[in-house]
Task: structure prediction
Amino acid sequence: MVTKYAKVIRLLTATNQELLREQFAPVVFPMVVANYAARFASEKIRQALTDGNRLSELLYHCYRVFDYDLIMVFTDVMVEAEAMGCEIEIPEDEPPVLLQPAREKSRPFTTGREKRLGIVLQATRRLREMVKDETFILVSLKGPFSLACFLAGPEHLLELLLASPEKTDWYLQCALSNQKHYAREIIRAGGIPFIGDPFASGSIISPTHFQRFALPYLKELVDFIHQLGSWTGLHICGDSRQILQLMNQTGAEVLSVDEMPLKSVRTQIGPQSIIMGNVSTQLLETGKPQQVANAAQDCLNSGMPKMILSSACDLATSTPKENVVALIETARSWRWK
Amino acid sequence: MEQDKLLALLSAAVVKFNRDDVIRLCETALNQGIPADVALNQGLAKGMRMVGEKFARQEYFVPEVLMAAKTMYAGFDILKPHLTPKEKKHHKLALGVVQGDIHDIGKNIVKVMAEASGYEVVDLGRNVPVEQFVNAVRDGITVIGMSALMTTTMPVMGKVIIALKQAGLREKVRVLIGGAPVNDLFAQQIGADGYAPDAYQAIAKLKELFD
Result:
């Protein structure tokens, strides 16, 4: 039997023609992250965000129950920003809140154990021991642009794009330098750095600004990860239709896209790039299993073979189990026509 | 300078985020005896409407709207002391990001656009408890605008509407909602009066409800 690990490697390395010839089966991963995994075990989410061992157990439990193909260690978007000096609050059962951006006091990376960086790395190491070499463990790494937004405060940084490109670059450099170190630690812990850059969204900044302020830093980060011998992915939330080709230029092996027609995504980025996505998270939360299956079917028909069937963004905590199962089952029973 | 030309320059300065020009032109307008409300509505606010149109056409994005808003407020501060209360027309609008959610950029943009369109806005801020929306209606608010970025917090919007019904205030207020995970269907499900996908359309929706 082909392991999940081998399947993903095949997806990463084989050509389209080879995958077609092999009638390659879809890789599937609904974006189950810390908060969903905590709710799934009927727990409040704070412990999952602050205790590496518990986080690994919760994620492992979901992985075993649903039997999808990848694991993702993602607690929330504030992990790196907090380690670099932003003040945050972690409510008992809600995602963390940014209280005070670090601004000029942003601290560069030192040991990799600051605040919750250590928790994420601990969870990654534990999961690596638990699953051995069964599959890949994706670990969330903020894109430099989004991290810079947290460091400066989002509105402040967005204004700086126009008011002071130099100052913007200062924040971006600071973020990039931290993320390179953190990426190395993620790989050491047995994970794959998986970049999420929610503020670089085409719903927030223009393609011109993406090209000037997000792309070069993403590209340098991706190059660095490649030098360390790892592959990587890039997830950007919101409407990224206008920046898909730029996302592709980062060199990330996997492009994870939010809700948008997958057919046009495929047309824009070409047949060789791996698309991860993109069944509506809202449909997953509120729809019926059959609707989820139909949407997943559409995704596969548009995206295969270079495709990881997934949700458009991370799963809402109240997503019914049956809908997650419907997504996975659709991939398992999908056949080439 | 001719009034029309001055007002056109004022609008253009907002669109180009030219703060110095906005300040200078507002002062000139007042010195020339142009009424403050004319400078506001046909200069600054018109500029902001043009910004909204550019946003809708995806020529402008969030940074541009934020900068234009900042520029508009620089002029607004100059005109404000000279505005007569009669411009406070329309309805009183309370805006807030619902409890548990702190993503307020979208809400802030709606605020700017609403103020530029002449609405009186009470900004309830972010992470706003259900009861605070209800109290706002008790205090005479006639429109509530709620926003949420996260699927985990959007159900709170429904809770606000239920709380309004329980307090017997639902008929006194119109409820509009927005935010990335929200859509028309969700608005109908929770019994809101409308949904808008962006700030520009939020203002159009407000007008549709009342004009």
In short: Chain A has a mean pLDDT of 95. The first strand of chain A starts at residue 27 and ends at 29. Chain A touches chain B through 27 residues (CB under 8 Å).
